[in-house]
Amino acid sequence: MFTLLPNEHWDYGAMDAIRGLRAAWSRRHSRIPWHIPISGLGPCLPIRSARAAIVVALKALRLPTDAAIGVPLYCCPVVFKAIKAAGHFPRFIDVDPETYCLSAADLAAKSSELKAVIAVHMFGNVCDVPALRSAAPGKPFIEDCAQALGSRLNGRLAGSFGEIAAFSFRSGKYLSVGEGGAIYCADPDIEARLLELITALPLPSRVDESVHVATTYLRSLFRTRPLWGLIGTRLWDAYNAMVSYTSQSPLVLSQIYETDRQMTLRRLPLLGSWISKQRSNARCYSQNLSVDAGMLCSETPGAFFNRLQYPILLPTSGQCDRLVARLRENQISTARPYKDIAAITATHFGYTGDCPRAERIASRLLVIPCHHALRAADVERVWTCVNRAWAEVSVRRRGMVATSTHRGATSLQPEQHVGTMAEPHHTL
Ligand SMILES: Cc1ncc(COP(=O)(O)O)c(C=O)c1O
Ligand 1: does its nearest atom lie under 6 Å from the Cβ of 165? Predict the structure, then answer.
């Protein structure tokens, strides 16, 4: 309980809160937002969050109302809320089994229906945006880089391929500043429209900012050891059980909190070293996990994943549940991102069941802690426990006997490994 390892690193201490309050109360009153420079990309327009960035980006594209926006089924559902808030509707596209991002083939099949595409770079993996653009020629692309700050493809940063890119600095992401987002746009005309739209957004009041600082500080405290194991997980579970889907992850359109903007500027120079650390953690997992290679997400040729998250894809959802439970018994938190996405989108966004691969991935994927605050001993504990738990879980399914390996884990014979898509997919 005291030692439960958090799956995310919400880095926001007392000094950050004091600085935040100072920033909130000394805020300038100009409505014109100052730029946030993202190295390798250029100046970006700050905004309250990535979800607000997507709303504004869609508006700046001046699409006809009620337009179909291509978006992967497997992504953060707040993106679908943003599409709706901009006056459009999501047209769900299936995902690629290598990257868990948009499938070029499914995009090509549905492209004639679309007015724009949102390419989401999931987990810090990168989509092949040039290939996607060929699959949907002439459509404007918004890159959702909420999880992909610093990821690259063929030497180019994620965010530089589309018409507009949205970034998130929210707690749990790399910079973990509370909220905060930014928009990058290389086209001067669209950028001028974006600036106009952002400038028209309300500025948060000083009281709102102070409340934001206090809640960010408290929520981050409950996300750190020992409070995470003692009470944090229970608070999060209770909140999620109590609050309806529609009220969760609210979408507020406003300018960025000054405190978030200042902390983003302070932390951006540290991004490179944090990404190096997380990539080294990911490398360690990839080398030491005794699981079928198809269960891990390898970097595609030419890609540089920032490794915000380290996903493992299990052959069945039952195995995923059991692995999560075994890791929890071993004091390791994991997450099952968007596991109910098919049901949520069917209920709230008109999903009709035509993205079977995304459904399979959603129901069988878990992410293990990979953040840069992990010590080497934590990383070793995670892969050792995953190996032990997976040996038990997979053996239980197949009724086979596990054998010990030099890593202190248990391994399976080759014929016991099961393909990543072994279970029939769930339809709605
Ligand atoms: C893929 C993706 N897009 C968009 C968002 C929204 O970002 P924000 O929380 O900054 O609005 C998130 C995260 O919450 C995300 O993971």
Answer: no
